[in-house]
Amino acid sequence: MTNTTLLLVAIAIIMVVAVPMVVILKDFLPRAIERSSNIQHLENRIYVLHSEVHDLQDRVGNLVANRNRQSAEQHRLEGDIRKIEKAIVDLATQPPLFVHEVGEPQAGASRFTVNLTLERASSAARSSGERAPVNPIWRGTNVAEVWASTYEEAKQLVEVAFPFKLGFTKAFITKPSKAERLAEEARKAVAEKAASEETAA
After folding, report:
1. Would you tell me which of 3, 49, 50, 114 could form a disulfide with 144, CB atoms 3.0–4.6 Å apart?
2. Final residue before a domain boundary, out of 94, 115, 143
3. Chunked mean pLDDT (size 10), the chain, 201 residues
């Protein structure tokens, strides 16, 4: 066999082997290429879905946090409502309190609180058979808030507004502070000294 014959035989064998390989590759390669492109498309889709899952998890986390805040706020409001309802019930069981304001609230004025009673409206007067006409508010609790610069001035204002001769009894709840008492005593001492100097002159 010559080299040419061997070459021709080798070419024939290669052709015999190559033709089925080409047929096989012709069927296999497009599917492989198509599969690889589908795999890339699927990978891209998975990345997109993964990103969407993270976004949804963040949104769910925010919604859960909002729900928890609203639930805590609701519990707090329910507690406040229960306290207010209890306070309303407590206030409804208490007798009414009538507040009388005496004097003008202004700069330098202090507030003094005074309990007021009207003797002819008291239960003792009614039980003794006294039938004097009385405004019904005086059968309840009455308080005067007196605005004055000194304790003595407050006492005078209360006496003018609710005189003893008409049956009013007064009891100061707010006592003057020690500084106010000392200032009042100093004013009285100065006034007495000025009065004594005038009489001497």
Report:
1. 114
2. 94
3. 74 75 69 68 81 89 93 93 87 81 86 84 56 73 88 90 86 65 64 73 60
